[in-house]
Design a protein that fits this description.
single chain; 70 residues; mainly alpha; Helix Hairpins
Length: 70
């Protein structure tokens, strides 16, 4: 996921992205528990995408609290 794409979205869209990524992370955990996980590297990328989105949400909320344009 490109950072520039994420910065163009509003907070509601970013929250929807986080929800989708958390669901994907849950599915990966279930696959791992049942022994069907084929691509374990996806854990790392999903975890980093979630952190990236949360960082952008915090930046946008801090900017709106200080009165700047996000």
């Amino acid at each position: 996921m490109e950072v520039q794409e994420l910065r163009e979205k509003d907070i509601d869209a970013l929250n929807a992205e986080i929800t989708a990524l958390l669901a994907a992370q849950f599915r990966l955990r279930m696959q791992r528990a049942s022994g069907q996980l084929g691509q374990p590297h996806q854990f790392k990328s999903i975890r980093r995408d979630i952190a990236r989105i949360k960082t952008i949400i915090n930046e946008k909320s801090a900017a709106s609290a200080s009165g700047e344009k996000a």
